[in-house]
Structure formats: C-alpha cells, structure tokens
Amino acid sequence: MKAAxxxxxxxxxxxxxxxxxxxxxxxxSFWLNPVxxxxxxxxxxxxxxxxxxTGGSSRVGSLGGxxxxxxxxxGFVAYGVMSTCFNTLAVALVIRRETGLLKRMRLSPLPTWVxxxxxxxxxxxxxxxxxxxxxxxxxxxxxxVLPEELGAxxxxxxxxxxxxxxxxxxxxxxxxxxxxxxxxxGVVFFVLLFLSGLWYPLKPGSxxxxxxxxxxxxxxxxxxxxxxxxxxxxxxxxxxxxxxxGVWGLAAVAVAARRWRWAPRKD
Amino acid sequence: xxxxDPAVVVEGLTKSYGHVRAVDGVSFEVGRGEVFxxxxxxxxxxxxxxxxxxxxxxxxxxxxxxxxxxxAVEATSRQLRECMGVVLQELAIEPFLTVRRVxxxxxxxxxxxxxxxxxxxxxGLEEKAGKRVKTLSGGQQRRLxxxxxxxxxxxxxxxxxPTTGFDPAARRQAWELVAGLSERGTTVILTTHYLDEAEAxxxxxxxxxxxxxxxxxxxxxxxxxxxxxxxxxxRLPPDTAPESLPVAVDRTMQGAIEITTDEEIAVLxxxxxxxxDHQVEVVNLTVERLTLExxxxxxxxxxxxxxxxxxDRDLT
Lengths: 267, 316
Known about the structure:
The structure holds 2 protein chains of 2 kinds. Helix content of chain A is 74%, strand content 1%. Chain A contains 11 helices and 2 strands; from the N terminus they run H-H-H-E-E-H-H-H-H-H-H-H-H. In chain A, strands 1-2 form a two-stranded antiparallel sheet. In chain A, helix 4 runs antiparallel to helix 6 (112-142). The model of chain A is unreliable at 1-6 (pLDDT under 50). Helices cover 29% and strands 26% of the residues of chain B. The model of chain B is unreliable at 303-316 (pLDDT under 50). Chain B has helices at residues 46-54, 77-82, 99-107, 116-123, 138-150, 168-183, 195-201, 264-278, 292-299, and strands at residues 8-17, 20-30, 35-39, 61-66, 84-87, 156-160, 187-192, 204-209, 212-217, 230-235, 251-253, 256-261, 283-289. By secondary structure, chain B is of the alpha/beta class. Chain B contains 9 helices and 13 strands. Chain B has 2 domains: 8-223, Rossmann fold; 230-289.
C-alpha cells in the first residue's frame, strides 16, 4: 500500500509544497494584472474612505451609540472577503473554464485538491491584504478602535474566505459563459449586499433583516462586526453566525461537486 | 509496466453521446516509441478516442490501457498523467505570466521534468522566455503549447492537430521535434488533417470515419497503396479516339487520359507497343502511385477529384 499512496493523490509534504507553489503562481497571475488587482482590492477601501468621509462620525443608536465608522470597517472587511472570494473568483473560474485553462490543469498531473487549495490560499492572501488595509486606514484616518480580540476577527475572515470561496466555485458552475459571468454575479451580490445592511445597520427582527437572514452575506457581516462590538456583554466570538456561513459553504461544496466541469460549455 | 508491452491498447472502444455513436468499436495498438497518426474528417471520432486515452472522457464499453494503466481509474490518474503529455488545440495559457514562469510552474507538476531551457530551445522560444504569454503571436503560443506538452519528459505524447496554424518553418521545426522525441523513445499519438504530416511523421496510420477504423497500416501501404492502384496519365494523341486505344480508359478530360490500374507494367507495355506500331507520340506520360490523400479520400468516402489540386489541402 505504501507504493500506492506514494503514487496516489496525496503525497504529504511534497504536495503541501506544491500548494505553496500554486499560491505563489496564483498571486503572480493576480498582481501582474495590476488594473484588475487594484480594483479588486481597492473597491472596499474606496468605499470605506467615501462612507467614512461623509458619515463616519454619526452615532448609531441601535448599536449602543458607537460611531458609524466602527460599523463600516468590519462591514467592509466582510465585503472585501465576499467580493474577492465570491465575485472575482466565480468570474475568474468561468473564464478559466471557457478558455480551456481548467482543461489544461485537468490533463496535467496536478491533483484537483492542490489546484483548489492554491486558489483558496491565494484569495485568502488577497483578503488578508484588504483586511490589513481597511484596519490601517480605519485606524489612521478615522480613529477606529481596533478589536481587543483580533483572533476573533481573523477566524471570522478565514471562515468567510473558505465558505465564500466554495460559494464562488459553486456559482461558477451555474454560469454558462464568460460574457454572463460578471453581470450575473454582480447583480446577485449587490442585491444581497443591499439587503444585508452594509450601508446602514438593520434593525434585528425587521422584515429586511429577516429576509437577509436567509443569506450568508449578513451573517458574515455580523460575525466580523462582533469583535468590534463594544456594547457591554457582547462577545467578540460570533459562532452562531459563522455556523450559518459554514452551512452555506457546505451546501456550496455539494453543488460544486455535482456540477463541476473542466471543459468549456461549448465542448 | 514492462517496456516491451505496447504503450496503448484499445479494444472495442465505444462511446455515445445521446443517440449518436461517436466511437463504435475502435481497436488499435500503439507500440513503445511508435508515432501513430489518427486521420479522419471532423466528427469521425478522433477527438473522443484520444480524450478517452487522456482519461478526460469516460467510455461506454471496451478495454483501454495506456502505459499499463486504465485511464478511467481515478486512483492512478495522477501516475498516468505524470508519464503523459497532451497538446490540445484552443487551450489558453495564463496571459500575464511569462513564458518561463508558465513552463516552470508546469515542470513542478512532474517528478522528473526536462530542464526549462532545453525545452525552450527545442520549440524555439528562447528569445521569448521573459515575455508575457499574452504578447506571443498565435504560432508562438502553439509552440508554447508544445513545450508544455513535453516539459514533463513524457513516455507518451498525445498531439491533437499539433501544427494547425503554424507557418511552414515552424511546422518543419515541430516535425523535427516530434521526430527527435520518437528517437528518445517517446511514443507519440497524433491526429492531423494534414496528410503530408502523417506521411512525414507517422510510422503507422489509422483512418477513422463514422466512429470506426476503416484502414490501418504504414503510410506507404495504407489501403493497398504499395501494391495495386497506380495512375497512368498521358495526352490523347491527335486524331485518336479514346476507344481505339489498346487499354481500358478510366477517364478522359479535355484530351487527357487517365488509367487507374493494378498492373501498370502490363498496361505500359501494351501502350508502348501500340504507340511504336502506330508511330504515334504519347505526350505527357506520367505514372504515379496513388497519394496518401487519394487513398484517404477513397476511404472516407469522398470523391477524390482529379487529384491535381489535392496537395497539402486542409480536408475539413
């Protein structure tokens, strides 16, 4: 059995190195297309700066009278994670499938799990860069109070990256061709984003909150806000919302596993 | 996996898409180090056949063994792909990476890759090593395809129309590269529309049409090319009716006579004696074997025309 495992789809350390290499080349591909990279990473930052400049200092009564910027920073952390892992990745995967890049990977010895781990690792890096930028700008430009439990924020971001990557992959399998990728993903995402209270906190129990409560976007935003929540008795660890995000992630894995295709649709 | 075993064994391969039988009981063997060409019109089942060999497509029935492994078995697919290179048409390459990076990355997938510089030299892309893929011309990208196919030093290389879109010089270079690989002991399976390509490269050719192999052999002997079927042409002497010739005429076109025969020596002797006896001059006398293209077109059931415009024509 030893020989079989040595030749099989998991070869321990050497495969982990291969994952590292994949992340490296994914990163190269991403950053060597600077226009796409800057707009992907910069969108959340620009939004934060705009909202911070126009209404960042107003107080939010429903959240214990904190400054709005304390709400926007974790909101855009969640937004950044979602747009990178869901929007950008779903569209990128459709392009890769339709242009034959996926088929080429399939015909190489690169195991599928290594390829997907490389993709996920790469969007995790991009998400972390965004989170770092958002916290930095929030702190320096608007005096945001950073969470005491940074670990809770990191966990929320990692769970969000993994689950929204799965959602991005699943969504890519539902999109028929590269021309429809951007519009489909953009509309779905922005509608949900609007419903989820990125621009203003939703009152718990309101109709909007109930509707958006079915979708994962709001739950990730609540989970990234929890470490910033300074109300007495509030826990920075929001397992309840992360759990719902996780269930969405699992559902996405099921869809992706059923519908995944390597070849262009036209084949 | 003793190396005396054939590289590829296909036995009764069948694959349908809905009601259409794309491949209908195809069988062939490819020996180690052989260059084997699959010829056939579009939709004949070439691509489906090689996709089954690649492990990219499942089969409905039949036995397939590639380098001693069943390509449909997922557990050994990685092992198989480490020994196999595939060059397909119309697969993109990451546009923003440089040529060298792309090759470096691909090399990392294989246990014993060839050195990147060596491969760059083989495909003639040394000068483009530092350039981004998106800046390459179409032909250069195809050469990079070829480079990606051989970077893993494969035992078996599958080429799907490898020189479509190449200029003549690049084509010649690709041929030399394939011949060189064959000398190294690499088994090559290629599909092509260019019959001269099959003739130049392949040690054996199979013609596939309607999902079946209709002929198989060396390019020289395919469809009985080496034996019968010879074509004799000459100009009809003035004041002579085709009926008065001593031999059976197959075709007359504006005074040009064409005879297709298995017994060219006898026909020529009869013709020569007749000409000497009657003191007529036989002008433009040519004797030629059927071209691979003539044989091919006959096999796939198309009219071969008069063959005059047939050289190097793309058959699709």
